[in-house]
Amino acid sequence: MPRVPAGLWKNVIAVQVYGANTGVGKTVFSTILGAHFLKKTGRTNWKLRYVKPVSTGPASEADDGYVKKYAGVPVSTLFQYSEAVSPHIAARDGKPPSDGSVIWALHQYLNNESGRLNRVEREMGINIVETAGGPLSPGPSGTPQVDLFRPLRLPVVLVGDHRLGGISSTISAAESLILRGYDINAVVCFNDNGKYKNSEYLLQHFDKWNIAAFELPWIPDLEGCTTTEETKLMRDYYKEQSRIDSVHRVAERIISCHSQRLEELESMGARTQKAIWHPFTQHKSLLDKDDILVFDSAYGDYFQTKYNKKSRLGSDATDAMLYPAFDGSASWWTQGLGHGNPQLALAAAHAAGRYGHVMFAGATHEPAITLAERLLKGMKNYRLTKCFFTDDGSTAAEVGIKMALRASCKRYEWDGSSEDVGILGLKGSYHGDTIGAMDASEPCVYNKKVDWYRGRGYWLDFPSVKMKKGRWVIEAPTGMEEEFGPAEYFDSLTDIFDVKKRAHSPRYEQYITSTLDRLVKKQGRKFGALVMEPVLLGAGGMLFVDPLFQRTLVQVVRSYQFAELAPLPSSNAWTGLPVMFDEVFTGLYRLGHFSAASLLDTCPDISIHAKLLTGGLLPLSATLASSSIFQAFYGDDKADALLHGHSYTAHPIGCHVANISLQTMDSLNMSAQTWSGFRKDWRDNHGETKLTINPFRTTSGDHRVWSFWSKRMVVDLSHHPRVDHVIAIGSVLAISLKDQSGSGYTSNAAAGLRDALLYEALPGETRIHSRVLGNVIYFMASMTAGPGFLRDVEKALLRHLGGPPHPVFKRVELGNDSEQGQEIERSAEENVEQRREGAD
């Protein structure tokens, strides 16, 4: 969705008038409300405007002319079509404006009105924004209006349907708005002289929802009237209605809701300081309430964030309260399909209505079994056959570690309760913050001060992948060139991931084997599992592991003799140690593929998933396991079972949302349009190289390695004097900044850039909310992010780094894919000015 601020100003109240259906009196109500505010007296000087974003039908019959005639207020229409049909039909003969153009034009109109007000004379603006038809009526592009205008999140007055059947349509319209996060300030319904008594029922109904509802008199009977008589009757009607108590209370309700929203935004920082203990936060650093970001809402790839004293408005002369900030961390890596996704919201509502929550022990329900089958099928792993549900990545890791340790101890006849059985992993790994998951990582800033932490295992060094000076390189850790070999350069990531072509590395095999010999044979240590994040170690600092090293590590561990061999139950049984892949961060298309394991051309015995599983909407995780792991818990004694779970195991709302999320991402992956541009951008100069990966292959070219971030920009970053190296794969972009005092989590090298990206944007420039891992600043996009929006993010990033201008950032007409180029903004602004000049 486009980068447009939500519509909230200190000195302008913009209220959006929706109708439960067409013909219910939206324009009548808008006229009454406008006439009321023109007559309103008091200390405030009200400046009123009426705007119709999209209108269809002859200009002589347009709603803006009607409102101007009877209310006498300035009016504007932003997009006018002569044919009296639905906007998506009316716009079909020409090129319909994109959704971004429509809402950008509306926001610019409202923002300009804020800039025109005279603060000295206590002017306040009232802008009545009237939609066309009902909430789900389509806009010019075909997008339902309730979704089209959602990024602005204007407060709503819903005009109910007073006709036969209107109760149903009114309640349905209200539910559609609520599902999408709108605030309904009021519901108004015209009476029908007692025929259907819709308003009587609706007032009681909405009172139960704590939504203010009001009844207004309907227009006089105009049958048989001449034009002159009709005009007089209607002028008298509007004059009278503008003064009645119901209209006064609606107006006061609108003003009150606006004031309350402003007060809530202003107080949230201070209230948070008093009541909230934040995660991953040293509260001594939060010295002021403005150190806390206040989010009013979020939509698409953007947070709607409150301005504070740190936010620089630049040349913006309005009293705008909110600005959009690109969600650069994908909300701690969870966002897959964008904030406020209406499809996911509807799926959650459906499952909540169908099930609420049902317990899962010894039972089942359709969303859970469908999700389990979908995950197992998507992994395309002949080993994985069972799915165990938990609530987040850390608990999924706890379950996986329990599974692996039980399987090892049972096969090797170890007593894990009295013997020290650890895990093998990689340095810099991270598997969560619960006690067991922490113990599976080496001592680090996340766990070393936790009193129960023991660090039960051994973590191997590894060679890493990075781009430096425009070239991909695999480097050994400093001082370990003898173990891993000298730096090795590659033309592309595809070549690095072609692990079969690279065959094997004797150095890797020797390092791993000698390490195991020292630990197992010389020191007598016991290990119950190999646990690692495939390809990319997230919280450890976005460490990109050489895929050949990880593949080799799996092969060596599976062939190594950790204890006296016992007979294997089947040919698919685990060998050596159970291999567990933590795909909480890297899985489910984060790196461009359903499973990051597919990039290693190997199959784990246990695989854990969360984060993107529900598209960022709900907490849910899954631990997948092989049959031989499952058999370790199979027996006559209940105590031998996997006695793990929680009250919301496999909660049906999360499972149903996950099914919709995965189905959507599968469609994006298979579509010829959605990600093809990104893939084409990363195509190697020598053509469409395909990796020879068998167990996981799905479609032609599916296993090319590519990124959402532009290849040219990544290359430019790698040459930047402030940058040590950069990585880009799938939706992930990570930049390691040079720090003379040393890298790592305690480095502050990236903090200044993080703050500048959010607080020091130029007028019109994308603001970016990001997170840092020491000297590493990283960015992620949702799976639905368009190239135009990401190029805007890249442009802002390069400017703050001090990078040179680049051809990729030359503005062109980006079309409906981006909805955000200067061409769109200019055309929308011109449209607004032309309509305003005509109206004034």
TrEMBL record:
One of its GO terms (biological process) is biotin biosynthetic process. It holds the Pfam family AAA_26. This is PLP-dependent transferase. It comes from Lentithecium fluviatile CBS 122367. It comes from the Eukaryota. Its main location: mitochondrion. GO terms for cellular component: mitochondrion. Residues 812-840 are annotated as: Disordered. InterPro entries: Aminotrans_3, Aminotrans_3_PPA_site, P-loop_NTPase, PyrdxlP-dep_Trfase, PyrdxlP-dep_Trfase_major. Keywords: Aminotransferase, Transferase. Residues 823-840 have a biased composition (Basic and acidic residues). One of its GO terms (molecular function) is dethiobiotin synthase activity. It is found in: Mitochondrion.
